[in-house]
Amino acid sequence: MKNAVIAALALVLGASSAAHADQVIVLNSEEASYSILSRGLRMETQRLPLGREPHHLIQTPDGKELLIASTVTNELVSLDTRTGERKRTIRGIIDAYQLGFSPDGKWFVTAAYRLDHVDIYRYDGSFRLAGRIFIDGMPSHMAFDSESRTVFVTLQQSAKVVAFDLETQLIKWNAEVGKAPAGAVMLPDGKRLLVALTGEDSIVTVDPKDGSVIGRLRTGRGAHNFWPKGDGRHWFLSNRVEGTVSLIDTQDMQVVATVRIPGGPDCMDITPDGKELWVTQRFLRRIAIVDLATMKVVGSIPVGKSPHGVFILKAPALTPPLSPFLRAASNEPDPK
Amino acid sequence: MRPAIDLWVGVQAWLFETFVSPVLFSLNLMEWFEPAFNAVEFFMLGVVQILVILLVMRLLERRWGIEHGDERLVGVDRVYTLLNKLGIVPLFVFVLAYPITNQIEHLVRVLGFTPPRLERLVPGLHDSAFLSFLVYFALYDLAAYWVHRAQHRFAWWWALHSLHHSQRRVTVWTDDRNHVIDDLLVNLVLAVFAQFVGVQPDDFVLILMVGRLIESWSHANVDMSFGRLGERLLVGPRFHRLHHARADAAQPHIHDHNFAPVLPVWDMLFGTARFDDVQRPTGVDDPRIDADNGRGWFGQQVVVFKRFVAALMPRGSWVTQRR
After folding, report:
1. Closest CA to A195 of A219, A172, A173
2. Prediction pTM value
3. Which residues of B touch chain A, with CB atoms under 8 Å apart?
């Protein structure tokens, strides 16, 4: 009976446009599908097919589309960020494991984790390949400088970060930073690039000019992926081996809070009201909900196998013109 | 269903986070983080399969066993089963096969070919997980049928596969009695096939689990079938024991029947099916192959490797009638 009521509620909510703002998209990377979750009901309402191994997703610079990359199927599936409906499929984007738009929205970059190359596209709504750079070492995550001139790509297998000039697609520098570098984020001051070391228990601060390591902060074993809190100062970091998420104050460079999230926590997103952080638990086939006021896990929703990327749809009026990463990099105030 | 999934992945995550993840972390092997987590599931499935063999299949064998004799012959097959089902041989095979299958996949994808997904070609397939599983399972079984035919067709492959057939006391443990190079070759072919038809990792695990359990049962030392219709739908002990029957002058090609691992339809389609209820002794009528029975796991691996090398030689010293 309870399930029937919940299902009916989901149907009613699903019919209204407000419901779309309530939706959360989670990519089930090992079962070629994505789950649609209701934030209000805290349950999965639908599971839809995708190409094989969907890992990450990103909002387009105009905020209108959500691009989901299926790595093995070499394609991007675009969803309408207001309605959640499919808009188009862009084929021939090879092994797009990680995705990023430059802050000016003119460059789209993919990291081919398994096929060892970085692709740089000129973006104007369509994708024109400007350069493909083959580079050993499992290109993993990326960050951009605020001028949209450089993309920094971590190489998880080779302990390095590589800086590419977007216009020329040439390597600016290539530097060792520590074991298994993964998540990367450029801080708003433009002078510090944070890199999470999944093979260690720390993040390092890297000088974006030459790749030299200028600082280190211990967070937890398997430091992996960042997500901005939205105030330009604090960032969340998932520690996959430790099974925790750290909240980092990037001004004082210290961990100000830690929450235990079992099951290999990975990608994150924050609700539009800034009250909750949603974290994929890869191994447990769930997504955890963290209450940010208390920094405690208040829920965990079952999804598909190996949930990886997560994205919380925003209400139309709240849909930011830039993704939170780009907003943080460009110092734009958070509409939340 | 969800409580069962939670229990399963809970145990898997606990095993991984307690025993595997710290080792990967300390050895700086974090790029294997996800594959290693899946390997833990493979290990757990192996434990489940062994329990099913022990608690169900062995009981039936004890009650209705048809071949009796030297129990020591069976001992080595138990070693094979443990090494295979608990992931030791598969780990070795994976380490060797992964770079090859990966390279093939890379090459194909760089050339612009993307593996299709049947769900896109067949409307409605995605809506039924069970139907989707059945289709992939059947395709996988068809590929395995032809691999099995090749194991008997080529002298060099028969040199390896003959180890599987040399057992004179075929039991539920015999399914895993294979040379590691034979395991490697079979897995290579089937893994590449699975990639090309778009089998999802989740389906692949289930296909292996269900398939290997049925194959263990088809080797059981009992004269049982699933009935006149059932034995045409699913391979059972009676059907598969004919494939293991020892050839003699009257029936020198008795092995060349009933190759299908799980679905007899492939034998029926390709003219290799034979349904009868005659009980025959099992094994191989070649004394050099039959000598495998006196050896332990390591001895068999060494001798069969030599047999394989000899068969690869242009004028090999090891020539035998193919099976």
Report:
1. A219
2. 0.83
3. 2, 5-6, 9-10, 12-13, 16-17, 21-22, 25, 28, 30-31, 33-34, 37, 102, 106, 109-110, 112, 114-115, 117, 119, 126, 198, 200-202
